[in-house]
Amino acid sequence: MTVLNSGIDPTAADHTAHRAAMLDKLAELDAEHAKALAGGGEKYVERHRGRGKLLARERIELLLDPDTPFLELSPLAAWGSASPEYAVGAAMVCGIGVVEGVECLITANDPTVRGGASNPWTLKKAFRSHEIGLANRLPSIHLVESGGADLPSQKEIFIPGGALFKHLTQSSAAGIPTVAVVFGNSTAGGAYVPGMCDHVIMVKERAKVFLGGPPLVKMATGEESDDESLGGAEMHARTSGLADYLAADEPDALRQARRVVARLNWRKAYADPDPAAVAEPKYDPEELLGIVPGDLKIPFDPREVIARIVDGSDFDEFKPLYGSSLVTGWAALHGYPVGILANAQGVLFSEESQKAAQFIQLANQRDIPLLFLHNTTGYMVGKEYEQGGIIKHGAMMINAVSNSRVPHLSVLMGASYGAGHYGMCGRAYDPRFLFAWPSAKSAVMGPQQLAGVLSIVARQSAAAKGKPYDEDADAALRAMVEQQIESESLPMFLSGRLYDDGVIDPRDTRTVLGMCLSAIHTAPYEGARGGFGVFRL
């Protein structure tokens, strides 16, 4: 056994201070999550309940197997968006949960937010959910109640929004089951959601599915009609054939959805590990709160994190004496094998880059998923390092990450700046899942560095023109830029733009990653055997 030794003293002053700073950030995060849970607000929630309807998350809870977790994805979507009418959460709940023993991707419109209408952030969230479902071959269940596009923002929805229906047909063509449960409106373009799903359940006297409602039909054809005869659940069950199952009420619809999943004969590509054989970490996950300093310029040892998330705190480190600013090694997490790359001192040098490229190749040879734990300021700069080949060595690492075919998971613990974000498998490099801790920050570079670069460029420009330099204006510019970059590098800002799949409590990291690894093993995968492109040596 190669059990990691921990040097943490939970009673030490620095650990206590780091823990307090993290708890403050978690309190801020909880306040923002509460906005998503509140949906459209008390008025619209009560109106919805007054109609005898369940809320989106209540529907999900009834759908899931009892006492099983739900991994919610992108709960902060639309946070900080320019348009205040776009509620936090983007009028949709998405996540992964277990239904009749089957891991499923679940999406649910939140009808308390503008009738569940889709806005541009809803689309982004739905598209990301499809990516996750397709990559991991997860059956999808769509809990539908939406008036369609949010008309004031139709110019941003109509053209790209058609991909929602393409995605449904692509999943079906790939043999991935799709299920629609219609609780209320599913009109106009939204009618194609049940139209393109493999299995459709509608709630009697509640579901309304039509391309054009009675007013539009009247305007277009002069025909008089009513909701029920035009698109009611019973009509679709008896006459059009669009509904496969007619439910008496919402609980009955969810019961029928569970029966549909039970009859899918769905099997995972890989058997799950025996939970009884999985050893818990040797160290308390509560201590994860005190590992990352409030000031990210202060380094921390990522082995302390690894020791609190992997099985038995058992970690076989690869090349421990070479490229020490990047920790690499092998472990298991909830019984699933993983290769781990974790930033130690922040900066990536040539040695770390070459070490990472070799390690990624080894993981692909052995079909082992990779976990990237971010705390990097990027690749080292300076004359010595440029002459030493930092560009070609950093490119080697990015090449390896880009062409690796094993599943990748990323967690942003601290800094994730510059091309280091790319080399550590940031969002643009298609990790299966990417989460952030409240302590994380990500941008092209740190706020002070970016402001300083702009200041130097402006100063050089003034000198070249023979003009005096305004020091007061420079100080004001630097302060403004630092404030802007600081706010734009924070995890809630980035999560609101769906640059991650959620900001998580560090104590939940092992559980979240375990659920992700379980979902990943639903689909077959194979590592790259070559095909990495040209490595510049």
TrEMBL record:
Keyword line: Transferase
Domain spans labelled CoA carboxyltransferase N-terminal: 22-276
Record-level Gene Ontology MF annotations: transferase activity
Domain CoA carboxyltransferase C-terminal stretches: 284-522
Pfam families for the chain: Carboxyl_trans (PF01039)
Keyword Transferase: yes
Identification of the protein by name: Carboxyl transferase domain-containing protein
